[in-house]
Amino acid sequence: MSSDIFGRRLDCWINIQQVTTNSMMLRYSHTGWSTPVVAELTGGSEPVVQEQTGNLAGRFIFEELTPDTEYKVKVSIKDEFIELAFRTLPLPRQERLFRIALFSDTHLSTRTNACHGRLHSDSIMLVRSLMQQAAMTADYIIGPGDMADGGKEAEFAALESIIKSVNIPVLAVPGNHDVVHGGDVRFADLFKNTTFFFERDNIQLAGLDTGNGRLNKPCNREVVELIKTDKPLLLFSHFQLFADEWIPDADKVIFDSDECVDMLEKLKLTHGLACIGHKNVAAQVKINDFTQINLPQLTHFPAGYLVLDVYYDEFRLCFEPIPGEILNEYSRLGTEAARYHSHPACKFKSEYRDKYTQFYWNGVVKNGLYL
Ligand SMILES: [Fe+2]
């Protein structure tokens, strides 16, 4: 029996998390330890069936798929099922230039609890292990803010120790959680600055300091001045520069847009991708050849980081969830029980937080530039 709510319930949330050129990964959760969960993939030459028993939450991964191909996956538990569709990504036309691992809103904390489903107590373990994992294939780690949870010395000390254990450059711009309790000074000291601008392989990388929600600062004007509108651009900011239509919170976007019309108008003319932290719900804005996306965080469902593969004419995104769904499911249920973080049109906060994971955190973002 199929119904609109199966797989979209408080106790059963099933959704595709990762799609690549040749693989798909979905997550599930349900209530029966001993109830088999069956996933049947169709669309390839012949159906592929996987079954798991003994989990309250888990993942199915289908590999060796054909690029640029439509598939369907049917997930069944007892006599109920949900069907989800996806399309594998096309193969890139060019050689990859470099790779960035995007760790936004790590909210590194020394707290030992995990209230409202926020995984503070596991944050140091998650950041350390996953930054080290990402560094095995990435050229840079970049964090668009809220690296620390409360601007505290102990949090920055933990972050510093993790950064030292990673053998690739780690860059970041501040978020509102970094700059409280004197954290702004510590942040600037740790990351040498609160903005950055450099080029790699003819790609511009620019970090803006919107940690206090404001863009109109000399340091940001200096960076925007350096940006050329005829070259690919990767931009990093904690607050949104342009308001999206999915996240309802008023504090998602910079507070001083009216003072920054000149800078924002210039950014609209660029060929780029802006990677935004703060709200950590998959959302997107497209203006001409400029795309802005909101990034995931490591410590809140759907918890993970993004891998960004950089090509001259496009950017490829892939969501890497934290290992396993057990912590993620705890975070999901805690979020459902909390009063905050939802959308008025969503019955469940899981829908608000996870609705566009498959689409905005996995895919190809064209920048309008072709060799
Ligand atoms: Fe934030």
Features of the shown structure:
371 residues, alpha+beta, Immunoglobulin-like, Purple Acid Phosphatase, chain A, domain 2, 2 domains, six-stranded mixed β-sheet, 19% helix, globular
Roughly what percent helix? Answer: 10-25%
Which residue ranges are poorly predicted, with pLDDT under 50 across at least 5 consecutive positions? Answer: none
The CATH topology of the largest domain, please?
Answer: Purple Acid Phosphatase, chain A, domain 2
CATH architecture of the largest domain: 4-Layer Sandwich
Q: Which structural class do you get from the secondary structure elements? A: alpha+beta
Q: Provide the CATH top-level class of the largest domain.
A: Alpha Beta
- N- to C-terminal distance: 51 Å
Task: Tell me the series of helices and strands, N- to C-terminal.
Answer: EEEEEEEEEEHEHEHEEHEHEEEEEHHHE
CATH level-four homologous superfamily name of the largest domain: Metallo-dependent phosphatases
The spatial strand order of the largest sheet comes to 12-11-10-19-20-21
